[in-house]
Sequence to fold (295 residues):
Amino acid sequence: MTKIETKKITKAVIPAAGLGTRMLPISRAVPKEMLPIVDRPAISYLVDEACDSGITDILIITARGKESIEDYYDYTLEYEQKLRAAGKESELEVMRSVCKKANIYFLRQHEAKGLGHAVGCAKGFTGEEPFVVLYGDDVIISKTPVCKQLMNAYDEYGLASVGVQTVPVELVVKYCTLKTEPLKDNWYKLHTMIEKPKPEQIMEPHFSILGRALLTPEIYGFIADLKPGAGGELQLTDAMKVLAETQGMTAIDFEGKRYDMGSKLGFLMANVEQGLLHPELRNEFKNFLKTVMKI
Fold:
């Protein structure tokens, strides 16, 4: 593959407007992106991943009822006054540091038309620059941020890219299937893809896109031409399919542990596994789990 001239990537888009129906009834009152992993909301892991990858500007796509996300990335005077009065300046600085990680912007998706529509809303924010997309449901813990893994491939080939992993064949029909060709190591040339394929459409080696994409501005033209796809929504995968077939894309079999925070099981797994790694809680929590497992 011939290298294409690249641009520095400084912008990220986090679609967080979904209803979270798999997390009902709690998602009626708490946005799924604000559900905690121990003591931090899920979305903070996405923001941190973007920042750790060198991103400086982040747009979070929200919807009605998601105001708590915006509140989290603002100063909270009531808590600050309480901490300052108690002489807990270090804790105060930790709280403020959350708001200083990047320039964070918010935009409402007024209609729930799908992920393709949500990303299309970011055109005025990203302009003619490449950008990364972090799907709001997917928290990924990795040594090298997955966004950075995709950016490394972009620097090499100058092409849009997606983060993939192999998934059980019974789950491919719930995600997407990809036609790929090995490039080097865990990097692949991506030829095409199908959103929520029928069993007979599934392609080896059972790769699916899991939560991360790096897109070039050409994607917006393909989004504008989208027709309702799987589930009657405007699917980002359908636009990326055209991008892959016309411009070329890569697929990165990323290193990292993914948690589906849009599912109850994913939520529980994230809290148990990250709780066992939490420096303040891990020993007591481990002992607690040992007692529970004896029941």
